[in-house]
C-alpha cells in the first residue's frame, strides 16, 4: 500500500465533503433536530408503559390509588363497546369499570397480563372478564404498520436516490434535450415505483400469510386500494423531496427527516391512544398515518372504503399536493 496515494485520496474525499455546504450543514443540523423533536414528543415524567381505559361516571375515581400509578396512561371512555373494541385491538392494555367493579383483559397481550398484576395489587374485589369474539393477535395488529413502513422506505428512498443519481450523472440533463416534460418524467417514475412497491408488498403479504394465517375481516380489494393510495402519496413525497438536490448525502438526510417522524408517530409499532392532542394533530399530517390506520381498520374491523373515506380523501389530497409541488419545483440538472 502506497501511503502517499492513500493520503491523497483521504484528503480529497474530506475536502469534497466539507466543501459541500448543504451536506455539511445537514449532517450538523439533523441530529440536533432529531434530539429536539424526541425531547418534545417524549417530554414529561417519562413515556408511559401501559394504557388503561376507565369506565366510570364518578369523578372521585381519579383519586383512586390505582389511577395514581406512575407510567400508566388512564383514558376515560363513555361507551363500553368502544373501549372493549380498543382493548381487543391492542390499543388498550386493560379496561376497568369502577362503577360495576369489573375489569377486562386481552389474554393475547403480554402488556395486559402485566398491568393486570399491578391492578390486582391495589384491588381484589373486581370481577375479571376477558374480551369476547375472535381475538386479534399482536402480529395481526402490527401487520399493516410493518407493511406500511416497508412501503415508506421503498417509496421514499427508491425514488429519491434514483432521481438524485440521474441528476448527478447528467442523465436528466440529456433527457431535458428530448421532448419529455418534467410532468411526464415524474409521472412515469411514480407509476413504475408504485407497481414495484405493490407487487413486492403483495408477495410479502401472501408469503407471510402462509406462516401466520393473518386475521382479515374486510375486503382484500379495499386493502389493495388503500395500500395503492398510500404508496402513491409516499412516492409523491419522495419526488418532492428529491425535486432539486444533486447531493446524495443531503438527500439522505432529507429522506431521513421525512421518514423518522412517520416511523415514530404513524402507529406502526404502538397506538397513539391517550397521546397528547398536539402529537395526534402532527401525526395527521403524515401520509403513513392514514395508510396504516386505513389498512388496520379494513383488516381488524372489516371497514369498507366508505368507512375509511377520511383516510382515503386525505391521501388523495396529499398525493395531489406533493405531485404538483414536485413537478413545479423539479429541476433537470441544477441545484438552486
Automatic annotation (TrEMBL):
The region annotated as signal peptide is: none
Q: What is its main location?
A: membrane
Is Membrane among this UniProt entry's keywords?
A: yes
What InterPro entries does the record tag this protein with? Answer: ABC-2_transporter, ABC2_TM, ABC2_TM_bact-type, ABC_2_transport
Please report the record's description of how this protein sits within the membrane.
Multi-pass membrane protein
One GO cellular component assignment for this chain's record is: ATP-binding cassette (ABC) transporter complex
Taxonomically, the superkingdom here is Bacteria
Location in the cell reads:
Cell inner membrane; Membrane
Q: Pfam families attached here?
A: ABC2_membrane_3
Q: Name one GO molecular function term.
A: ABC-type transporter activity
User: Which family does the UniProt entry place this protein in?
Assistant: Belongs to the ABC-2 integral membrane protein family.
The record's PANTHER family line, in alphabetical order, gives: DOXORUBICIN RESISTANCE ABC TRANSPORTER PERMEASE PROTEIN DRRC-RELATED, TRANSPORT PERMEASE PROTEIN
Name the chain's protein. Answer: Transport permease protein
Amino acid at each position: 500500500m502506497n501511503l502517499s496515494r492513500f493520503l491523497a485520496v483521504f484528503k480529497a474525499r474530506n475536502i469534497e465533503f466539507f466543501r459541500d455546504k448543504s451536506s455539511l450543514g445537514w449532517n450538523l443540523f439533523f441530529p440536533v433536530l432529531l434530539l429536539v423533536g424526541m425531547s418534545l414528543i417524549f417530554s414529561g415524567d417519562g413515556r408511559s408503559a401501559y394504557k388503561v381505559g376507565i369506565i366510570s361516571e364518578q369523578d372521585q375515581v381519579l383519586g383512586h390509588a390505582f389511577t395514581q400509578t406512575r407510567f400508566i396512561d388512564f383514558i376515560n371512555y363513555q361507551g363500553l363497546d368502544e373501549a372493549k373494541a380498543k382493548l381487543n385491538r391492542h390499543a388498550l392494555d386493560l379496561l376497568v369499570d369502577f362503577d360495576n367493579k369489573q375489569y377486562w383483559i386481552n389474554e393475547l397481550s403480554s402488556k395486559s397480563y402485566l398491568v393486570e398484576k399491578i391492578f390486582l395489587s391495589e384491588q381484589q374485589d373486581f370481577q375479571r372478564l376477558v374480551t369476547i369474539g375472535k381475538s386479534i393477535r399482536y402480529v395481526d395488529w402490527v401487520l399493516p404498520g410493518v407493511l406500511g413502513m416497508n412501503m415508506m422506505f421503498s417509496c421514499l428512498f427508491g425514488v429519491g436516490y434514483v432521481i438524485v443519481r440521474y441528476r448527478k450523472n447528467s442523465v436528466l440533463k440529456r433527457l431535458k434535450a428530448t421532448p419529455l416534460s418534467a410532468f411526464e418524467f415524474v409521472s412515469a417514475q411514480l407509476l413504475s415505483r408504485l407497481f414495484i412497491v405493490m407487487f413486492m408488498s403483495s408477495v410479502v403479504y401472501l408469503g407471510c400469510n402462509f406462516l401466520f394465517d393473518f386475521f382479515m375481516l374486510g375486503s382484500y380489494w379495499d386493502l389493495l386500494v388503500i395500500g395503492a393510495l398510500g404508496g402513491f402519496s409516499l412516492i409523491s413525497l419522495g419526488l418532492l423531496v428529491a425535486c432539486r438536490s444533486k447531493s446524495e448525502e443531503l438527500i439522505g438526510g432529507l429522506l431521513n427527516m421525512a421518514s423518522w417522524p412517520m416511523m415514530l408517530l404513524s402507529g406502526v409499532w404502538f397506538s397513539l391512544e391517550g397521546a397528547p392532542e398536539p402529537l395526534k394533530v402532527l401525526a395527521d399530517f403524515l401520509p403513513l398515518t392514514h395508510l396504516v390506520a386505513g389498512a388496520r381498520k379494513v383488516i381488524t374491523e372489516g371497514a369498507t372504503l366508505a368507512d375509511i373515506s377520511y383516510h382515503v380523501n386525505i391521501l388523495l389530497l396529499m398525493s395531489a399536493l406533493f405531485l404538483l409541488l414536485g413537478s413545479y419545483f423539479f429541476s433537470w440538472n441544477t441545484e438552486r
